[in-house]
Amino acid sequence: MLRSLALAAMLALFLAGCAGQPPEPDPVRRALQNLSDRAVDRVLQVEALQPPEDQVLLLVAPEVDTSLGIESERFLENLTRALLGVSDGPQVIDWRPAMSGEGRSHQWKLESRLEATAPRLTLSDRDLLPYRLTLTLHHPDKEGAVWQTDIDGAFDATAL
Length: 160
Description:
Blueprint: H1 2-19, H2 27-43, E1 56-59, E2 63-64, H3 72-84, E3 91-94, E4 107-116, E5 121-122, E6 127-138, E7 147-156
Helix pairs in contact: 2-3
C-alpha cells in the first residue's frame, strides 16, 4: 500500500511538472532570434534570390560592434539558424577567405554588420541600445553589391 501511494505521488508530481509553464527562453537569444528572423525575411524577398531553394548563401562572419556586448559568433549562429529554419530556403554555408574566386550564378555572399547607432538610452524601467544591422549581398567573385538593406532597432540592455 505504501509503495502504491509513493508511486501515485511521484506520478502526480511528474504530471504537474509537465503541465507547468515552460522555462522562459534566454532573453539574449530571443532578441537575436527576433533580429535574425527579420533579417531572413528581408533576404528572402530579394528578387535575385528567387527561387531561394535553388540558391547558395555563403555567410561571412559578421562584424559586430563590441559596445553592444554581443559576440560575433553568437549572432552568426542565430542568423544561420534562422536561414536554415526556412522551408524551401537556400543552402547555407559559412564563407571562408579560401573560398574566394570564381563563383557560380546561384552563389551569393551575405555580409552583415551590426553596429550601435547611438549611446545607451536610459528609460524609467530599462536601458536601450540602438543598433543598425546592415546586410549586403553580392556574388563572391564581384565587388559591387547586388542588394543592401538596413534594419534599425534597439536591444533591451537588461537582456544583454
